[in-house]
Amino acid sequence: xxxxxxxxxxxxxxxxxxxxxxxxxxxxxxxxxxxxxxxxxxxxxxxxxxxxxxxxxxxxxxxxxxxxxxxxxxxxxxxxxxxxxxxxxxxxxxxxxxxxxxxxxxxxxxxxxxxxxxxxxxxxxxxxxxxxxxxxxxxxxxxxxxxxxxxxxxxxxxxxxxxxxxxxxxxxxxxxxxxxxxxxxxxxxxxxxxxxxxxxxxxxxxxxxxxxxxxxxxxxxxxxxxxxxxxxxxxxxxxxxxxxxxxxxxxxxxxxxxxxxxxxxxxxxxxxxxxxxxxxxxxxxxxxxxxxxxxxxxxxxxxxxxxxxxxxxxxxxxxxxxxxxxxxxxxxxxxxxxxxxxxxxxxxxxxxxxxxxxxxxxxxxxxxxxxxxxxxxxxxxxxxxxxxxxxxxxxxxxxxxxxxxxxxxxxxxxxxxxxxxxxxxxxxxxxxxxxxxxxxxxxxxxxxxxxxxxxxxxxxx
Length: 461
What we know:
This protein is 34% helix and 24% strand. It contains 16 helices and 25 strands.
């Protein structure tokens, strides 16, 4: 990797904008195929929305981190790079906090709710599983009910299906708070079903032991660091891209990409950043009308990922797994996030969408007080006194500006989805936000990097 003081001018077969897992995977595959690449990264590090860092003496996984059994593209890349995984701690009871504040310990996947609410939750899960099974995650807009499901919010779809408010809120939690990090009224039922389809089923999203199975020893950023090491000086940091210009030359495309650190001429360009950042780049010729419209209908959600470190994982002594859920609490999800072979205990909690809006109205001191008090509701008074406390706020990060992934507003997925991967001249699009399987996960980023590289290899070889 290099961080250029004076801008350099170089020629490559492919220039990739963004050194996250998708861009670096594409570069890795292209290089293995004998094509030359340059990767331009705005940040002073690689990894995109994966990042590991030491905060106040505690090593924290600030961004994406989990690996589930269905994420075969990521698992294959981890094997290729020699990166090992370990299981998330999950022994003992989980905790559920009901809308009335009642705290209940339980085991198994189903929340300890009334028989009527449990029946409604199971019915809604079965309904969503059936809808997801009828969908190809590569073409959600071809679902038999695509338009019907895309013009109603997930919030209102749930309530049209059930009058049990607790059941609706709990089912909504798995998609709205846990995944898309938007209020359930802000995205469509089709978007929710696509989220489930991308993970194999809605049941997989409900099962935290499946979706949050393993972690990478040394952190998920290790994927990007390992690939960047192989690419060496072809990764240029501190180089936000300002312009992409292209024309036809001798029967093929010729693009010139200008960044703060380099000017690269190439045959193809890969935009490997989330859609909300496309507008940070000036394109000449301008992108077509359809692209401009589509990008305005895609946005990232909002979440605070809370890291709380303690001298010991004290909750284990009480027979607790560290897992907790509550659709009504400030912290809606909490998990044991203790690092591999670390004697200290770490909890990770999530404050999403409108609850994050509220939290950011508070002073940092008051926000910490209320968030740790919410952790304590799940796991006991000791949770209110961490020795290290840190909030991952990706919404304020200049080169991310939001949470895990972009999703469409109401009606956007079936309207624009068919065009989201269409190349524009030499420009290809590659990020987890546009993935089918593995959507919004590192696995999706890897899949998109491999898909994009395969297309470019076919064009350029």
